[in-house]
Automatic annotation (TrEMBL), chain A:
Molecular function in Gene Ontology: ATP binding; metal ion binding; ribosomal S6-glutamic acid ligase activity
Highest taxon in the source lineage: Bacteria
All residue ranges annotated as the ATP-grasp domain in the record: 50-305
GO biological process: SOS response
Annotated Gene Ontology cellular component terms: cytoplasm
Species whose genome carries this gene: Oceanisphaera profunda
InterPro entries xrefs: ATP-grasp, RimK-rel_E_lig, RimK-rel_E_lig_ATP-grasp
Keywords assigned by UniProt, alphabetized: ATP-binding, Ligase, Manganese, Nucleotide-binding
UniProt protein name: Alpha-L-glutamate ligase-like protein
From TrEMBL, chain B:
Pfam families, A to Z: 7TM_transglut (PF14402), Transglut_i_TM (PF14400)
Name of protein: Gonadoliberin III
Keyword field: Membrane, Transmembrane, Transmembrane helix
Domain annotation Inactive transglutaminase fused to 7 transmembrane helices: ranges: 25-182
Keyword Membrane attributed: yes
Ranges annotated as spanning the membrane: 6-23, 304-326, 338-364, 376-399, 411-428, 440-456, 462-483
Gene source species: Oceanisphaera profunda
Classification via InterPro entries: 7TM_transglut, Transglut_i_TM
Segment forming the signal sequence: none
Upper classification of the organism: Bacteria, Pseudomonadati, Pseudomonadota, Gammaproteobacteria, Aeromonadales
Length: 335, 517
């Protein structure tokens, strides 16, 4: 009985051997040490993030409009009438909360990716909720952003179900240390949150190829809704994604961040948002712990200066995936 | 990077000071570690409030002495600017305050420590009171006579008559109801006993219950049979000296005599303390000066408050532990502590049922509100009003059904409940009912554990008697805040990963082995 119960838990020493990072360690040793509090507004406010990204020459989705005050809510229809698809999000939301995506509209009903229709009233209520701070951290008053939809690249057709697949890269002191792709599923309701059932695909930092995929913490090979072989996934423009992620370090000043990128068919990689408290699921997706990689970067010392290109080169050399025996993929080819 | 040294020094200092304080309390003042072999000491504080009229004021308060069941240990009074004297008058003692000139609201305090003592001497006065003959107006006189005749038939002497009278007055007959309109139970009983030529008089006593504030005195009737006497509580009909009943005024004089003031009021606060038998007994026979750095120096009303407040750090410690070491998700950081505090007031089962009923009903009603397209602040306000409504509704229903326990749901902090409902409702809309159950259940579980910790007799004893414990709790919380290891839930979360890693390395080894072959 006790043995069965114990068998559900891993030994902390085994986790330590693998270098798996826990929540407490993340909070104390990385986030609070490398992310100065005063810089948080830059990433917690998506409007701010957009501004610094544009200053740094990083592509971001087009901004259709901003609704700041309750009395502007009635002008919502005016702002969106010329856009077939758009997306409403809270500037200070976190974890994908409060994001509404509309793929097509006729001025009366607004279709969500799931096919469910919303009325303009529903959207207006949603915007008022955003303004009141329902989705923001700590319930602070917020503003609503209306953004153009991303024309997401066909290369990911079949890999994602009803949602934009995005690439998350953990950037530590400017070095991309680990990456994954998040693919929405029917279970995750078009959202890319792994704890809601989205698929996480670990990516080789060197090549951008899939090395492993998980859903609900368990390894899988094929997408549960579309049946595509997830190991065929290879992110195009990988070099560019890495250097854009890497440059988010200079742009934000934060030492430990998660960058969320999407691939637009026409504009290439775009920065969706920065996250100052990235989650730990990326380790399960990659089948590897973060700690050894972070240690490697920390060992470089405080005063070593690297250009973004040098940092990307270092990461691709040092963090290239080893052969995953259970998956039987090809060893990564150096490009 | 900051140096961690000062941090560890602070933690160690907090721990050592806290531990030293606890040891000192134990060895110097002999406060036991566990609530065990002890004497109950009741500290009772009388607070006299009145409005002075700018003239000389003289206030005289009846004070209790040693009596059957209780031994007086200590008494003191606080009243800035007033002259004070303890006077013996008519066999009873009184505290008398005086001042030449006072105006505005005044507060005078008298505090007494009474030890629960089965061997206490000094019985109540056996001097038989004079029987007063009063004129009773009709129709009350007739009613009294009828009730008396019935009771007399079933009684043998004065004591049994008093008992039968109380029974008679309880069983809502017409006469009893008529008499209830005439006078309140205690004077009525005395008047009727006097009518039957049984000597009796009015006493005033205090029902002892730990941590009660602003309690009034209760009227009691002392009935004589020769030199013997018996005490009755006319409100409850109970007979005999009850353990938790302290006689406050038993010399047939008013509780408070006030000259130069108006709107006077006397209220009582009481608190139960436990002292080791030897300390308590030493104090009984010889009264040393009880100097001690502790909460005992505060006014009793504050002490009663602190008894509750000092438990909060324990609840907080439980939450910190469950979140950082175990990794349980709760909605709102310290909401579980507040719920646990409410559980202490309501008792666990009532509290749990009440909480589930309120939040459940609230969620149903709230789902309607979400269609109304309201602004957030207005919606939360609506939820608060709704919660008050639900609490009121269920209290009334519970009362109608005779479940007085159900009334206790009024102890829940309403704003907290409203926020809980709002959060849960949003969680429901965004992530589905599963997450609601998960987070709500997590919060409740943490609340229950916090409650169990806070409600334990040992913990209550230690938190109140050993203030040093608070420093130790602080040190532990600081240390926990520094813990970078894995949470228990993470061991489960990453278990598949470790399994795979292990099978991989085993496979590796096999390949290696084959190579060697």
């Amino acid at each position: 009985m006790i043995k069965r119960w114990l068998a559900q838990y891993a030994s902390p020493f085994a986790l330590g051997d693998m270098g798996i990072m826990g929540m407490n360690q993340r909070n104390i040793s990385y986030i609070s040490r490398y992310n100065p509090r005063r810089l948080y507004p830059l990433v917690d406010d998506k409007l701010e993030t957009k501004r610094i990204a544009l200053d740094a020459g990083v592509t971001v989705p087009d901004l259709i409009g901003v609704i700041e005050f309750q009395h502007q809510v009635s002008s919502l229809l005016d702002k969106i009438k010329d856009w077939p698809g758009f997306c409403i999000k809270p500037a200070k939301g976190s974890g994908g909360k409060g994001i509404v995506v509309i793929v097509s509209q006729d001025g009366q009903s607004f279709l969500k990716p799931s096919g469910k229709a919303e009325s303009i009233n529903d959207l207006e209520r949603h915007v008022s909720n955003i303004l009141a701070g329902l989705f923001s951290l700590g319930g602070k008053p917020d503003v609503a952003l209306i953004e153009a939809l991303i024309n997401f690249d066909d290369v990911f057709d079949g890999f994602s179900y009803e949602g934009v697949p995005d690439t998350r890269v953990i950037v530590f002191k400017g070095f991309p240390v680990m990456a994954m792709m998040r693919l929405s599923t029917e279970a995750s309701d078009g959202k890319a949150n792994l704890h809601q059932g989205a698929v996480g695909v670990g990516l080789d930092i060197n090549s951008g190829r899939a090395i492993r995929a998980v859903q609900h913490n368990l390894p899988i090979r094929y997408h549960p809704d579309t049946g595509r072989d997830l190991l065929e996934l290879k992110v195009p423009n990988w070099e560019l994604i890495l250097s854009l992620s890497s440059s988010c370090y200079e742009m934000s000043g934060l030492g430990y961040i998660g960058t969320d990128m999407v691939l637009d068919k026409f504009k290439g990689p775009m920065l969706l948002e920065l996250n100052a408290r990235p989650g730990l699921a990326i380790q399960t997706a990659n089948g590897a712990g973060l700690v050894p990689r972070l240690r490697k970067v920390e060992k470089l010392g405080r005063y070593a200066t690297f250009s973004p290109e040098e940092r990307v080169r270092f990461s691709r050399r040092e963090f290239a995936a080893e052969v995953q025996l259970s998956m039987k993929t090809e060893p990564p080819m150096p490009e | 990077m900051y140096s961690r040294k000062p941090f560890y020094i602070i933690v160690a200092a907090l721990f050592l000071i806290g531990f030293a304080l606890m040891l000192q309390r134990h060895f110097v003042y002999e406060v036991p570690w566990l609530p065990g072999e002890k004497r109950q000491i009741w500290s009772i504080e009388a607070k006299v409030e009145f409005e002075a009229k700018g003239k000389p004021v003289k206030a005289s308060l009846a004070i209790p002495g040693s009596q059957p069941g209780f031994t007086l240990m200590n008494e003191s009074a606080a009243s800035p600017g007033y002259g004070l004297a303890f006077v013996e008058a008519k066999g009873g003692s009184r505290a008398e305050w005086s001042i030449r000139n006072a105006s505005g609201p005044q507060e005078l305090y008298y505090k007494v420590d009474m030890m629960h003592d089965p061997f206490a001497k000094a019985p109540l006065s056996t001097e038989i009171p004079r029987i007063a003959q009063t004129e009773v107006p009709e129709p009350y006189a007739t009613a009294m006579d009828q009730v008396l005749t019935q009771a007399k038939e079933r009684s043998a002497d004065g004591l049994t008559l008093a008992r039968e009278l109380l029974k008679e007055l309880k069983n809502s007959s017409q006469n009893a109801e008529l008499l209830a309109q005439y006078q309140s139970p205690a004077p009525l009983l005395i008047e009727m006993l006097h009518r039957a030529a049984v000597p009796a008089r009015l006493l005033q006593g205090l029902q002892l219950e730990d941590g009660r504030r602003r309690q009034p005195l209760v009227n009691l009737v002392q009935v004589y049979e020769g030199k013997e006497y018996e005490i009755f509580n006319p409100d409850t009909g109970e007979q005999g000296n009850q353990e938790q009943l302290l006689m406050w005024e038993y010399h047939s004089s008013p509780v408070l005599d006030l000259v130069g003031g108006s709107n006077s009021r006397v209220t009582f606060t009481m608190i139960e303390q436990e002292q080791p038998v030897n300390v308590a007994l030493a104090k009984k026979f010889d009264q040393p000066h009880w100097i001690n750095v502790s909460l005992y120096n505060l006014p009793l009303e504050e002490q009663a408050l602190f008894k509750g407040i000092l438990l909060v750090p324990i609840g907080v410690l439980v939450v910190v532990f469950l979140r950082i070491i175990i990794g349980i998700k709760t909605s709102g950081t310290f909401m579980p502590v507040l719920i646990a505090m409410a559980f202490i007031q309501t008792s666990l089962i009532t509290g749990l049922v009440g909480f589930l009923i309120i939040v459940g009903t609230g969620l149903i009603l709230r789902s309607y509100l979400s269609h109304l397209n309201l602004l957030l602040v207005a919606r939360i306000s609506a939820v608060i009003i709704m919660v008050i409504g639900i609490i009121g509704f269920f209290s009334i229903i519970a009362y109608q059904l005779g479940l007085t326990e159900g009334m206790k749901i009024t102890f829940f902090p309403m704003i907290i409940l409203a926020w809980t409902i709002e959060r849960m409702s949003i969680l429901w809309e965004e992530e589905g009912p599963k997450e609601v159950v998960k987070q709500g259940g997590g919060s409740l579980m943490v609340a229950v554990v916090a409650f169990l910790a806070m409600n334990s007799e040992v913990v209550r004893h230690i938190t109140f008697n050993f203030l040093g414990l608070q420093l130790i709790v602080m040190a532990v919380v600081l240390l926990l805040g520094n813990y970078t290891g894995y949470r228990l839930t993470e061991l489960k979360r990453f278990k598949p990963l470790v399994d795979e890693y292990n099978t991989d390395s085993k496979a590796d080894n096999k390949i290696e082995d084959k190579k060697h072959d």
